[in-house]
């Protein structure tokens, strides 16, 4: 394993994390308050379905890249026993985030899409609220994970 391979793995790993966590930050802190304040459910809910339709494939790609590069670095570079605590914690929090995203994608997101297609705005609002809560939790975990990843080696 050369330095170029390790550099590429780290670059891809960080870019995937930035895309995922940055997207959640933008959606939660910027887009959500504006959409909620300016749009009624018949406009707001289809907007969110469109946003998720564009963002979720990027999250799936990020999950694949994070798992692939992270596990490769863990086993090929550090070794499970040689990895320090922050790497193990980063793996744990990443897996929790992936589980939460899987839940969002397979449970409330299809229900939100069906509600929007059926113009069931109250039902859609409930599903969007579930997604919003889970994304908020994932955002917090993601920010903690970034802090662990960037500063853990110095503790």
Helices and strands in order:
Elements: H1 3-38, H2 41-78, H3 85-106, H4 108-117, H5 121-151
Helix pairs in contact: 1-2, 1-5, 2-3, 2-4, 2-5, 3-5, 4-5
**What Rg do the Cα atoms give?**
18 Å
**Helix content range of the residues, please?**
over 70%
Find the count of extended strands (DSSP E, 2+ residues).
0
- Please identify the oligomeric state: single chain
Gap between N and C termini, in Å?
27 Å
Low-confidence runs of at least 5 consecutive residues: none
What would the principal axes of the Cα set say about the shape? elongated
Main pleated sheet: none
- Rounded average pLDDT: 96
Q: Note the beta-strand portion.
A: under 5%
Question: Which key phrases capture this entry?
Answer:
155 residues, mainly alpha, 0% strand
Fold and architecture overview:
Helix content is 88%, strand content 0%. The protein contains five helices and no strands. The chain is mostly helical.
Brief rundown of the structure:
With 155 residues, this protein is mainly α. It has helices at residues 3-38, 41-78, 85-106, 108-117, 121-151. 88% of the residues lie in helices and 0% in strands.
